[in-house]
Design goal:
Shape of chain A: globular
CATH class of chain B: Alpha Beta
Strand content of chain A: 25-35%
Mean pLDDT of chain A: 94
Largest sheet of chain B: 8 strands, mixed
Radius of gyration of chain B: 16 Å
Number of helices of chain A: 10
Strand order of the largest sheet of chain B: 2-1-3-4-14-13-12-9
Number of helices of chain B: 6
Helix content of chain A: 25-40%
Structural class of chain B: alpha/beta
CATH superfamily of chain A: Aldolase class I
Number of domains of chain A: 1
Largest interface: A-B, 40 and 41 residues
Largest sheet of chain A: 8 strands, parallel, barrel
Strand content of chain B: 25-35%
Strand order of the largest sheet of chain A: 1-4-5-6-7-10-11-12
Structural class of chain A: alpha/beta
Helix content of chain B: 10-25%
Distance between the termini of chain A: 17 Å
Mean pLDDT of chain B: 92
Number of strands of chain B: 14
Low-confidence stretches of chain A: none
CATH superfamily of chain B: Class I glutamine amidotransferase (GATase) domain
Order of helices and strands of chain B: HEHEEHHEHEEEEEEEEEEH
Distance between the termini of chain B: 12 Å
Oligomer: heterodimer
Number of domains of chain B: 1
Low-confidence stretches of chain B: none
CATH class of chain A: Alpha Beta
Chain lengths: 252, 217
């Protein structure tokens, strides 16, 4: 049986680990190579690394961080943030990324989704979708939550899968860093449209929140604040979730 | 474990086929972490010193076979395996061991283990491709599984699987709506559908076991 995945999210800014609230105010919380090693040893099922830097050289800085992490961590990881072309993606795959997460480029140049999927296989292409709940509607945002897109959430998901997306990484901007729980209605909306695996992000503040999202049907739950702060870690989360009947991996 | 006593790690030379697809680096790093110094194999001459060969791979079957062909590596791989030397295919590398693949377009494979590479039957309620940790149920013993319990989870990313002609080549199976072979083997050739280099401790153990294997079952 395929297992549910617990994925720590790490935000990167110029080679450092940071944490944001509602996508703003990055605060330095450590060294991403060390924290990746720790998460890996704490039985994390996968790692997500998101670059929040938008400087011109940010992908190159990211490549060097990814190389360092790949040397030390034998767990799958996805890398996103500021990837604008097949060329950026190629550099990150070569550095050791298993999957890349793309968002803004899916609006500015949708053909890139297909190009990357053709190069690395659609399993390596995660489309990140950032959403805000406005006037009873889930509005899709790009460019680090700065630009509201006109496409509907459902249509965007369908288009992305048609173009070659292998997974959907759905993030609630409203819930980012708030630790008040995932937007379960948002997850259900996405699940009803998506034939590919869905990773939930944005809002986890305790292990019960992870359980709620998994029971809603997502394949994976991702969280930053929950593991960045306090003594919560993936091992403790998984012990809790296993007791609630969630299927989780056993590796030894 | 015979090799560990008779040959030092220095006398074993592990090659990784590097055709610039997927993350060869992860396989390299995993070997390095287990105290091996692998060689990246890019042309026929690179095979001279090798005792073991790993064919990794992420990407599509037809594209990978085309590059192997363009780089004149197909005969070298087949000859290497025919000499009885341990040969391991990982993920797409395992699928390439088959006779034919149907990803993208139909393409001829390496033909080292009889079978074909076919897509999953799409089953309602399951998402495809098959991504994540799933159980590897051992159907028979194999030297690369020394010290590995049956039923442990390994990391998979696949939309296709190896459908062998002969069931005695199936070493382990995995269930995703349908049972598919997650490890196949024939004499000195073995393939794993999951990514041992991404499967934490037990994955690294499989890689180390392979490097210490003499190619006999």
């Amino acid at each position: 049986m395929l297992k549910k995945r617990i994925i720590p999210i790490q935000l990167l800014l110029k080679g450092r680990l940071v944490k944001t609230k509602k996508f703003r105010d990055p605060r330095d919380v450590g060294n991403p190579v060390m924290s990746s090693k720790v998460y890996s040893s704490q039985d994390a099922d996968e790692l997500i690394l998101l670059n929040v830097d938008r400087a011109a050289d940010s992908v190159d800085v990211l490549v060097s961080t990814v190389k360092d992490i790949a040397r030390e961590c034998f767990v799958p990881f996805s890398v996103g943030g500021g990837i604008n072309s097949l060329n950026d993606a190629k550099k990150l795959f070569a550095a050791g990324a298993d999957k890349i997460i793309i968002n803004s480029v899916t609006f500015s140049n949708p053909a890139a989704v297909t190009e990357i999927a053709e190069f690395a296989g659609s399993q390596a292409v995660v489309v990140g979708i950032d959403v805000k709940f406005i006037d009873n509607l889930y509005v899709v945002f790009s460019n680090n939550s700065k630009i509201a897109e006109s496409v509907s959430l459902s249509e965007h998901i369908r288009t992305m899968i048609r173009l070659g997306a292998g997974e959907i990484f759905i993030q609630s901007i409203d819930r980012d860093g708030e630790m008040q729980g995932y937007d379960i209605n948002l997850l259900k909306t996405v699940l009803s449209e998506s034939s590919v695996p869905v990773i939930a992000a944005g809002g986890a503040g305790n292990f019960g929140h992870l359980d709620q999202a998994l029971k809603a049907g997502v394949n994976a739950v991702a969280c930053g604040s929950l593991f960045n702060f306090g003594d919560n870690n993936p091992l403790r989360a998984k012990a809790f979730l296993k007791n609630l009947g969630n299927p989780l991996k056993r590796i030894r | 474990m015979g090799l560990r006593q008779t040959l030092s790690r220095k006398e074993l030379s592990i090659g990784i086929i590097d055709i610039g697809m997927g993350n060869i680096g992860s396989v390299y790093n995993a070997l390095y972490s287990q105290a091996w110094d692998p060689i990246l194999v890019k042309c026929a001459e690179d095979f001279d010193e090798l005792t073991h060969l790993i064919i990794p791979g992420v990407g599509s079957y037809a594209a990978a076979m085309k590059i192997l062909g363009d780089w004149n590596l197909i005969d070298s791989i087949i000859d290497f395996a025919a000499e009885g030397k341990p040969t391991l295919g990982i993920c797409l590398g395992m699928q390439l061991l088959s006779d034919v693949g149907f990803e993208g377009m139909e393409a001829k494979g390496l033909g080292l283990i009889e079978g074909e590479t076919v897509p999953f039957e799409k089953i309602r309620g399951l998402s495809f491709p098959h991504i994540g940790w799933n159980e590897v149920l051992q159907e028979r013993t194999h030297p690369i599984l020394n010290g590995i319990k049956s039923g442990l989870d390994f990391y998979f990313v696949n939309g296709f699987f190896f459908n062998p002609v002969y069931s005695d080549t199936i070493i382990a199976t995995t269930d995703y709506g349908q049972l598919f072979p997650s490890i196949i083997g024939k004499k000195n050739v073995v393939g794993v559908q999951f990514h041992p280099e991404k499967s934490q401790t037990s994955g690294l153990k499989i890689i180390d076991n392979f490097c210490l294997w003499d190619g006999k079952c």
